[in-house]
Amino acid sequence: MSGTITSTSLKKIRVNITMDITFIDHYDSFSFNVLGWLESAATTKLNITRITCDDLNGLDQLSKNLTPIVISPGPGTPSNYPGTMALIKQAMLHVPIFGICLGHQMIGELAGGKIIRAKDTWHGTVENIEVLQQHWLTAGLSRQFKAVTYNSLVVQMPDEANAEWSILAKDRHGQNMILAHKKFDVASVQFHPESFASDDLTLLAKNFLARIK
């Protein structure tokens, strides 16, 4: 019998590829928009497990069986969510993580940054964002784009953190809008890429999902 695999046999053994992601939900009104945004960017089937920030058992189970993580926006500051913060601290060295707004501030604080008041209080404001350097997350993005912000806080990074972290984009005030680790697949954005009023930023989701593959 020949050991050659024919095209017919290939069709018989073909299986659907599923990508597993965990979404940490901080009860933000945009959470399900973010889920839809991720699904619209996927080239394979996404199996998204939603865990709310107050589900301590769910967070504990995730810490024992890590999958790539997306951290939702939400009210308050990182200090209001010790469960999520502990999980990110453990997971960031092991699996890809992407944070949005509050998620960005959580990653920034764990990176040694300080959460400070923004120069403007933005709620549904379209801001001009400038990409400062190329990175796997920003690959293919225009150097300048528009994105909607819903925040009154930003992450201020110390100079000494630059050895491990990169500020990939800033707004017109020079405030940190995209943060990424230089070695691990951990990145975050201050703005809301899923908003209909932002430029089409599906590429950010595509680039993150590509790192999972």
Summary keywords:
213 residues, nine-stranded mixed beta sheet
Compute the number of strand runs. Answer: 9
Percent helix range? 25-40%
* Strand percentage: 25-35%
Shape: globular
* Mean pLDDT score: 90
Q: Determine the structural class based on helices, strands and strand pairing.
A: alpha/beta
Please give the largest β-sheet. Answer: 9 strands, mixed
Task: Specify Rg, calculated over alpha carbons.
Answer: 18 Å
Task: Please report the distance between the alpha carbons of the first and last residues.
Answer: 35 Å
Provide a count of the helices: 6
Walk across the major sheet and give the strand order. Answer: 2-1-3-4-9-8-7-5-6
Can you tell me the residue ranges where pLDDT is under 50 for at least 5 consecutive residues?
1-15
Q: Spell the H/E element sequence.
A: HEHEHEHEHEEEEEH
Structure, explained:
The chain has about 210 residues and is α/β, with parallel strands linked by helices. It has helices spanning about 5-15, 30-40, 55-65, 80-90, 100-110, 200-210, and strands spanning about 20-25, 45-50, 70, 95-100, 115-130, 145-155, 165-170, 175-180, 185-190. It is built from 6 helices and 9 strands. A 9-stranded mixed β-sheet has the order 2-1-3-4-9-8-7-5-6, with helices on both faces. β7 (about 165-170) and β8 form a beta hairpin. It starts with 6 loop residues before the first helix and ends with a helix.
